[in-house]
Structures are given as C-alpha cells and as structure tokens.
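Much of the work behind modern protein science is quiet bookkeeping, done one molecule at a time. The protein below has been through that process, and both of its lines are reproduced in full.
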Amino acid sequence: MKNLKTGGKIFIVILAFQAVVELLLGGSLLLDFPTTLETGFGITYSSELDFLGIALGLYLLLLTALMVLSIIWTLKGNYSGATLGIVIGVFLTLIGVIVFLQLGRTDGLFIDSSRGLLTIILAYIAGNEIKKKEVN
C-alpha cells in the first residue's frame, strides 16, 4: 500500500468494504435465503424463488472474489487491478441503471450506481498512480 498515494488507498479501502458487504450478503442468501429475502429486501419468500437465492448468492461471492483480486493486484502495483476495478464499477453502475429502467426503482440507482461510479473514479485514480510509478 506504500506504493499508492491517497486515491489508490481510498480505492482499496472502499473496495474492501464493498467486498465484505457482498460476502456477508452472498453468504446470508446461501445460508438462510428466506429470512434474508424477507428482512433484507421486503420480499415474501416462496420456495419457487430458491433457485434465484442460490444464483444470486453465488454471483455475490464471485463479485467478492473479483473485488479481492482487484485489491491484491492493485496492492502489487499491477495495473490490471485498477482495470478490474473499473470493470466492477461499470457492472455495478449498469445494475442500478437497468433496474431503474426496467422496474422504475430508484434504490438500485442510488445505491449500486453511485458506488459503481465511485469505484470507477477511484480505480481510474489508482491506475494513474500505478502508471506514474512505472514511469519513474
């Protein structure tokens, strides 16, 4: 982390926080889907939704793994970490926008898209810091 300046360090901290949240949410979806669905999302549980709980839980664990990989690469001064961070940010932003356009729900737009845009900006800054280190 000593190779990074302030922007890169903030990127690492924000991405690590998001990874922990995704891990906890993904784990809770896999371990106790009915309770997580009803208390976390306000959706009435039906056994017909079990497949979606497994798929969504695994998706969140995959997203967590990608965030951790981005952190590791960035800490090692590998520009691919910042690139992966940008990809993750674009993905999160698209989730919020598509949910808004398809369902008219603004919660995803404000939560997912805003953290996606923040991730893109911070990953770009971290990437620039890594590039400057490579030049020097």
